[in-house]
Amino acid sequence: MLEVHCSGTPYEIGHQHGTVAKDQVAGSLAFYENQFQETCSMNWEAVRKEAEKYIEPLTKLSPRHVQELQGLADGAGVDLVDIVALNVRTEITFSLYTSVPSTSIQTDGCTSAAYRQPNGEVLLAQNWDWQPQQAPNLIVCHIFQPGTDLPNISMVTEAGVIGKIGINSAGVGTLLNAIRARGVDSTKLPIHLALRTALESKSAREAADKLYKIGTAGSGHILVADESEAIGLECTSIGIKEINFDSDGTLPHTNHLLLDHPGVDEPGWLPDSKDRIKRISELLKEKLASTGIDHSSFFELFQDEQGYPTSINRAETSPGQGTVTLFNINMDLARRRATVTVGRPINWTERIELSPWLMCDNS
């Protein structure tokens, strides 16, 4: 997996991302152009029109991030609106789903969990499942922002997307579960920029407070944690509700809302989402009752294949069809480190260690 090291001003950070990962950004754009056309009969010009609606609100909400998006576009040799489209693809999907309810929508599915160990330290992990055609366009992005009080960030993301799944030098980690609910509000923060905002925070509570204040444009579950606390943020365009650790110190989530969200329309999407939340909860309880859970054994839960191929460790239903686990990330937040396992957790192809607290300016 390509690793990109970015530092400097927001524009410079974006420009380095776009320049070094130029081929992968082009790959992401091609993948989503095809994805929108195949699943929504929406051509890229229509996608760009939807994305344009977010530029002005984002310039007011988060000017630094718009500068980074502009730098990324310039580095990759594409238009700003193309890069914005990648970063608001969740919201564009849900906007279309709201206006044309019969639309067949596909988005990434995942299984995530946080666990607070008996010593109070928090572990955070997830499998990220998506179509294998997007695997070559995944990158690890390291971000160092000198002259600011913002923490360093190391995250796994789709090339061209500036906020995703990762860990920062303050020991804050973020995970994402896609949620398919109707409704979008372009005056609020898109889910992927909400993830970036969380990764620029120094505690889980600070991240949650920021997102409560701004709100999210679309739906998703953001699991944000630090070394002692984890907060599950079920986000919709209407509002955000939080889930905390249960009595066993566990907090699992998949791809459906667990809390009641009045006024939110969430039709069924992935039937296996309810099976996976049940299964990951069972595995957590079983492991706690036997050997206990540490950073190493936490990963083992995500190798589970009960319900194959739509299991926690997901496989394609047939060659080229359906989604598959593309990577696992397993974080030890007290030690401010994470292990990225590329590929399905039982037959992975590469391992990458993330330690953003060791990062320095490479420019």
Automatic annotation (TrEMBL):
Short name of any one Pfam family annotated for the protein: AAT
Protein name: Acyl-coenzyme A:6-aminopenicillanic acid acyl-transferase-domain-containing protein
Record InterPro entries: C45_proenzyme-like, Peptidase_C45, Peptidase_C45_hydrolase
Signal peptide: none
NCBIfam families hit by this protein: C45_proenzyme
Taxonomic path: Eukaryota, Fungi, Dikarya, Ascomycota, Pezizomycotina
Highest taxon, organism lineage: Eukaryota
Domain Peptidase C45 hydrolase: residue ranges: 116-346
